[in-house]
# Entry
Amino acid sequence: MLKLIASSRIHRVHPTVLRPAHHSASPLLRVLSSLGGLSWRNANVGGRYFFCSDSSDGSDHVVDAGVQAAEESESKASAIVPTYPRPEDYLTVLALPLIHRPLFPGFYMPVFVKDPKLLAALQESRERQAPYAGAFLLKDEPEADPSVVSSSDADKNVYDLKGKELFNRLHEVGTLAQISSIHGDQVILIGHRRLRITEMVSEDPLTVKVDHLKDKTYNKDDDIIKATSFEVISTLRDVLKTSSLWRDHVQTYTKHIGDFTYPRLADFGAAISGANKLQCQQVLEELDVYKRLKLTLELVKKEMEISKIQESIAKAIEEKISGEQRRYLLNEQLKAIKKELGLETDDKTALTGKFRERIEPKREKCPPHILQVIDEELAKLQLLEASSSEFSVTRNYLDWLTALPWGEYSDENFDVTRAQKILDEDHYGLTDVKERILEFIAVGKLRGTSQGKIICLSGPPGVGKTSIGRSIARALNRKFFRFSVGGLADVAEIKGHRRTYIGAMPGKIVQCLKNVGTSNPLVLIDEIDKLGRGHAGDPASALLELLDPEQNANFLDHYLDVTIDLSKVLFVCTANVVEMIPNPLLDRMEVVAIAGYITDEKMHIARDYLEKTTREACGIKPEQVEVTDAALLALIENYCRESGVRNLQKHIEKIYRKIALQLVRQGEMIDATMLPIKDKVDSDELGQNAVQNKNSELVEGIDPEKESETSDEIHKVQSSDQSQCLEVAKESGGDKEIETKTIEQVLVDESNLTDFVGKPVFHAERIYDQTPVGVVMGLAWTAMGGSTLYIETTFVEEGEGKGTLHLTGQLGDVMKESAQIAHTVARRILLEREPENPFFANSKLHLHVPAGATPKDGPSAGSTMTTSLLSLAMKKPVKKDLAMTGEVTLTGKILPIGGVKEKTIAARRSEVKTIIFPSANRRDFDELAPNVKEGLDVHFVDDYMQIFNLAFDDEQSQNIK
Ligand SMILES: Nc1ncnc2c1ncn2[C@@H]1O[C@H](COP(=O)(O)OP(=O)(O)OP(=O)(O)O)[C@@H](O)[C@H]1O
# Structure
């Protein structure tokens, strides 16, 4: 091809556009050309890395001669052909380092020469009409990773290389490159033939002596070479189908290559592949044509794999984009169509319309300041961009504002008789509590409104505080909302977050109003005594603002940012321990104490309330089960002795679940064994007689084997006297077909109670039948209700002046002080009674309060401790079934205590017959229901000597009542 360029002498070698000089008819080229679908006329390779020029195997004419001649012919219009040295004559050349890839013969490459000396030398040599240089690939620095693309910094270092250092870094084999043109520091090189460096001639610029390399001779007709080259071509063809980039390379190459020889094919493949520089250098250095073809084949195969991956990536991305675009377009079209048909307005208008629709019916009742804010926000919404975050904040805000029940109230019912009926319907007993609630309703009726009071129901767990709250709401015809503040530490839970926070929400009370849809619900604030300590703000103060009737008419929620009137809301709180309620809150409350239930009350609650609801919840009919009184009593006394009834409820549920399972199993067995009995029977035959008849029929119908499979429990029930069979008659079609089904009635008695609830888990509080010397029963109050406790004192050792008292049983400071006081009081009394008895002075004593794991505190055990010490000193046990409570002073006065009802109930539970209370508590005791006081011998005392007489001397005690 060079030959042709030279001979035509009219073509100028241009760095970007190379024109074909020869249309080769090589079969290989035709294959590639046809695949590329190319035409040389539009071949533009501007800016591409690879360019094609001619190269020779040694017999070519010199291309620069042609170029020069052409230039001359243009300028001088002369056709004189000078004799110029041929490429193979250049045995000493300037060495040009190539950083990124080697230059292959037949391709051209632009390089940037940063070294001014080298650039000048190249320029000079070009001007001297010897425009050749040797282009050699630079070796990587020994430690550099060839796979890592060198940064510009590294390039800079390479440009600094000079002389010997540069010489050592050059690969030995390179390419004789024609300097096609120089623009600034850009030099365009055209590869010609392979060279090998033999020695360095001069250092700056680096000049080297070179040998010109020739390919090893090969047989053109060798089948293996042919086959390999065909494989290279076919692979190239495959790549061409997918890669447009390659198509351009081929286009350029085919335009300028003459004969497609095997070595040239190998160079072509390697040069246009994306292989790394070392792999390319390997191909350049290979002089064996077959081996070179093989190396190239590897590279193009790899290229094909890459192009396949490239194609699949492109396809996947294209599919994704087009799918999304399609969906977007369709959505937009849908919107446009809907809008056109008047089915839907745009988002903003639709939203505004929705909010206006919501607020319109409430407009009359809605406070003007709220209306103003809503209107302002609606106007603002119109101006905001629908995708902005401000828009969604405003939308949510409007959603809340318009959803609240402004001015909506449920009609309050102040009918006291109805209220009484509802309260009795839901709860047994609690007479005093119900009375207080009825009083409250009566006041509401006279005033026309029930606001202004906060009721606080206090008592141990499971006594029905929450459910009473629900009943009050029902009685007053108010909506009910409950929220627990146990452990609540964040003020935002009550007062809401400011709207500026992401995910901001109004507080619980605003959520409540939205939820119930009226502005006068009954809000039950549960566990107010367990309010957490706030880390940001004080929840108690926030609750105060919410509950205080003086303040809550203008309650400000941080989210809503407009005042709301909560004065119509009725607040009911519940607490286990009133003392734990923050004082400012307690101050505003009307405390209604629910002390707990005695056995009798629990029996009624279990029978009339818990059993009924549980039976219904389990889907069991009343006739299918019988729980005897004895069973219930055993359940209450041995399993559920605590003050509340929640545990009792759980046990009843357990029993009923077991019964349900029994019935279902039984029913399945009967279904499987029962034969339908066809008989025409009048419905009035299905009386008591029929029960017996059909029962005997049924027994006949049951397969004896199957019958034997029934569970032991069922046998037990069946064999009991009270087991019955009931019949269900069913009519079907024209004939009266009677299906007889037996429904066993499950009996729960004291004897089989353990089958349902297991062994009793509760150990009696009473550990002594008759208290020994030094042991006295006291009465205590806990958050779980009342309980009995023993004070035990024993003698440890005796010795002159050894009179000390050792205390154990996790006693608090107050209780420890009480014990010291008791010790002193007992010593004084003994001195008065038995002056010569040196017991307290010389005895080391140990006082213990059992249930050592439970912390105890308070002064109310003072009288019990004194009695216990005196009992030990006098070696005289106290009266049987006696319990006492009362704080004792140093002078022996008995001061009042708390929790009289709880303590009385606990005493009854422990079968105490005689109780001693401080005189000051007489009023509390008198207020108790008669059934609580029933059968108890209660004494009220104000001086310890009265207790002494009651505990140790029967005769005198009769007088103190
Ligand atoms: N006097 C009663 N009559 C009928 N059922 C009752 C009575 N007292 C309590 N109950 C029932 O006992 C169960 C437990 O009551 P509730 O949950 O109201 O207890 P609580 O006092 O609120 O307990 P806590 O302090 O643990 O919240 C409820 O199902 C309730 O109906």
In short: The longest strand covers residues 186-202.
